[in-house]
Specification:
It holds the Pfam family Spore_III_AF. InterPro entries: Spore_III_AF (IPR014245). The chain crosses the membrane at residues 6-25, 37-55. The structure is a single chain. With 197 residues, this protein is an alpha+beta fold. It has two domains: 2-74, no CATH class; 89-196, 2-Layer Sandwich (GMP Synthetase, Chain A, domain 3), CATH 3.30.300. It has helices at residues 2-25, 30-55, 61-72, 76-111, 170-183, and strands at residues 116-126, 131-143, 151-154, 157-160, 165-166, 190-196. β3 and β4 (157-160) form a beta hairpin. α1 (2-25) packs antiparallel against α2. The longest helix is centred in the middle third of the chain and has 36 residues, at 76-111.
């Protein structure tokens, strides 16, 4: 019993000397308080370890730390990581799409202020290359006048009455070229429509 007490006091003394040495070489900044916290936890573990062994003879701090490490690195983590990564990609894609639509509208209204614009962008994440690809950009040039009817629903049957006019004139070509240069994409994925407001 006296031998165990001697080992315990020796371990506490060594831990205190180690903590003191580390605190002396730490710079005076925000990291010092975190380092002191971790060093204090180490000292608590050194002090409590023999007391816990009195109540539980099979207690081994290393086995508990190994179990905790294996749990953290266990088989459930990769599936959780994949789930969080997928959710993050979906959210990032949606935010990228919204920001791109706003940017298109803002740039067009600044460059061609005579009209109002709506934008619809189709963005897909390419997981192989880790990039977002812009598949389609649909720009609506809102013209003054009567607004066109997009769809009519009668007794749960939908009648498509879409009359979007694709702009192939100079205005449409200018908008396509402008957005193609601005977004660094091919003008083939950009379609410009004229709609009534």
């Amino acid at each position: 019993m006296i031998e165990l007490l001697k080992v315990w006091v020796t371990n506490i003394t060594i831990a205190i000397f180690f903590i003191t040495a580390v605190e002396m070489i730490l710079p005076d900044n925000n990291m010092k308080k975190y380092a002191k916290f971790v060093l204090g936890l180490m000292l608590i573990v050194v002090i409590i370890n023999p007391i816990i062994k009195i109540f539980d003879k099979n207690f081994d701090l290393n086995s508990y730390s190994n179990k905790a490490t294996s749990y953290i690195e266990g088989s459930t983590q990769p599936s959780d990581m994949k789930k969080y990564k997928d959710i993050n990609i979906v959210n990032t894609t949606e935010n990228f799409k919204k920001n791109l639509q706003k940017e298109c509208i803002t740039n067009l209204e600044q460059t061609y202020p005579e009209n109002k614009y709506n934008a619809d962008v189709d963005v897909v994440y390419d997981s192989k290359n880790g990039v977002f690809n812009i598949n389609r950009v649909k720009i609506e040039v809102v013209d003054s006048g009567v607004q066109s009817i997009k769809s009519i629903k009668i007794d749960t049957q939908s009648v498509d009455a879409s009359n979007e006019n694709v702009l192939t004139n100079t205005q449409g070509k200018q908008i396509k070229k402008f957005l193609s240069n601005k977004l660094k994409i091919s003008d083939d994925v950009i379609t410009v429509y004229k709609v009534n407001s």
